[in-house]
């Protein structure tokens, strides 16, 4: 078999991505090797997806076992892995019911449709407003990208879905002023991911809960990026002590295998009657078997406590780098979702930091042009954190010297 190269991307792929020059071919734990055999410390986690790193034995075992049983059934049937996973998610959260799909975008699409269906069924067609926040990100379908508060992702595709209002994040006064009896739902990321790794204030989420109750609206938490242990709790709403009506989950849920889920209550779920929504691959036995293994590992108290310990180590390391080089305004975030906000002299250069880091053998992310994002495996060894930080500091030093 002939080896493919980075040039093949430009030749055969739609140019909506601009991938790095190297091609990873093998991973183990929190280390990755490219075609040339070069090693990288993975502090990116496939954009907060590889929750247990690469080739975790529990996930490989679950996938292999299920792969030798049954791969797919239509949604006119059900399957054991889907029912086991749904039962574990219900037992571990506020939810009574689960809908499975393939991605965070699909989970949010389902959540937004269900919220409007619930509101219109109960209150009529006028109750359809969705309130979201500026700089939010909820997926790439046309509906979800419009609910997301970043016009750069939604402009240029013609008329947008109507009835969507964007407000400043963490602004209780703006939310209070915008709410009405026409509001169907308020959609919030407990930590804005693509918007710059910006955590919500507890008072803001509490106010959103109270306002939704006052106006008969639903509170939706998009936990695609924060869910399944990323913040040090199984879901971030548990950290805040604010319970949503609908929660969406993906990314870490599959540990790298595509799966999404929407969680909600009996009262709301009944408005998705037979035929009202669906997903051909949703609840796929392979995906659900892997995700069940992820939940089994991540929900262990020692795993979640380990996330908090690793948070402290990564945060203190980044702050020490900044003390020596002065490239960040601040480092913020929760658990193993951290964002280093670039100082004024480096604004707009997050991709430069990402590229320089790769040259030093460490994989990091950006969250917009001004924030370097870190989302490693939840079980990354502390030695890999230390080595990753050492390599990242070499990249920082090289940029600071220019």
Helices, strands, pairings?
Blueprint (H helix, E strand, L loop, with lengths): L5 H7 L11 E5 L2 E4 L4 E4 L2 H4 L8 H11 L12 H13 L4 E5 L2 H20 L5 E5 L8 H6 L3 H4 L9 E4 L4 H7 L4 E6 L2 E2 L5 E2 L2 H14 L2 E5 L13 H5 L5 E4 L10 E5 L1 H4 L15 H14 L2 H25 L2 E7 L2 E6 L7 H10 L2 E2 L1 E2 L4 E4 L7 H20 L1
Parallel strand pairs: 3-15, 5-6, 5-7, 7-10, 10-11
Antiparallel strand pairs: 1-2, 2-3, 4-12, 8-9, 11-12, 13-14, 14-17, 16-17
Helix pairs in contact: 3-12, 4-12, 13-15, 14-15
Structural class: alpha/beta
The CATH first-level class of the largest domain comes to: Alpha Beta
Q: Name the poorly predicted regions.
A: none
Number of domains: 2
Average pLDDT score: 96
Write down how many β-strands occur, each being a DSSP E stretch of 2 or more residues: 17
Strand order of the largest sheet: 4-12-11-10-7-5-6
For this structure, the CATH topology of the largest domain is Aspartate Aminotransferase, domain 2
CA gyration radius, whole angstroms: 21 Å
Task: Characterize the overall form.
Answer: globular
Largest sheet properties: 7 strands, mixed
Distance between the termini: 43 Å
The helix tally amounts to 15
The CATH homologous superfamily of the largest domain corresponds to Type I PLP-dependent aspartate aminotransferase-like (Major domain)
Beta-strand percent range: 15-25%
Q: What CATH architecture of the largest domain do you see? A: 3-Layer(aba) Sandwich
Helix content class: 40-55%
């Amino acid at each position: 078999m002939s080896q493919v190269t980075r040039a093949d991307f430009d030749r055969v792929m739609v140019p909506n991505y601009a991938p790095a020059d190297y091609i990873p071919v093998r991973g183990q734990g929190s280390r990755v090797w490219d075609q040339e055999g070069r090693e990288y410390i993975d502090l990116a986690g496939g954009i907060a997806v590889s929750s247990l790193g690469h080739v975790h034995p529990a996930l490989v075992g679950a996938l292999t076992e299920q792969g030798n049983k049954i791969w797919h059934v239509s949604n006119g049937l059900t399957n054991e892995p889907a029912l086991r996973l749904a039962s574990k998610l219900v037992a571990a959260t506020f939810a009574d019911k689960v809908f499975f799909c393939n991605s965070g975008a699909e989970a949010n699409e389902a959540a937004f449709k269900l919220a409007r269906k619930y509101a219109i069924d109960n209150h009529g067609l006028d109750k359809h407003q969705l309130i979201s926040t500026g700089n939010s990100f909820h997926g790439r379908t046309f509906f979800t990208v419009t609910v997301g508060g970043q016009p750069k992702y939604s402009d240029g595709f013609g008329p947008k879905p109507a009835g969507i209002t964007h407000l400043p994040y963490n602004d209780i006064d703006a939310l209070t002023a915008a709410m009405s009896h026409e509001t169907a739902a308020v959609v919030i990321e407990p930590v804005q991911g693509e918007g710059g790794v910006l955590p919500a204030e507890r008072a803001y989420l509490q106010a959103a809960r109270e306002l939704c109750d006052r106006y008969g609206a639903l509170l939706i938490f998009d936990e695609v990026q924060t869910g399944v242990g990323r913040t040090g709790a199984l879901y971030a709403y548990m950290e805040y002590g604010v319970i949503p009506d609908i929660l969406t989950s993906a990314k870490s849920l599959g540990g790298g295998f595509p799966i999404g889920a929407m969680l909600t209550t009996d009262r709301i779920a009944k408005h998705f009657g037979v035929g009202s929504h669906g997903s051909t691959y949703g609840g796929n036995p392979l995906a659900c078997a892997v995700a069940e293994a992820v939940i089994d590992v991540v929900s262990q108290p020692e795993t979640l406590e380990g996330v908090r310990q690793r948070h402290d180590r990564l945060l203190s390391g980044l702050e020490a780098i900044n003390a020596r080089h002065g490239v960040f305004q601040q480092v913020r975030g929760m658990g193993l979702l951290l964002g280093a906000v670039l100082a004024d002299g480096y604004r707009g250069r997050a991709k430069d930091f990402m590229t320089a880091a790769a040259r030093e053998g460490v994989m990091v992310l950006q969250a917009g042009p001004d924030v370097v994002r870190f989302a490693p495996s939840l079980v990354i060894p502390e030695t890999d954190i230390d080595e990753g930080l050492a390599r990242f500091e070499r990249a920082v030093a090289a940029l600071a010297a220019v």
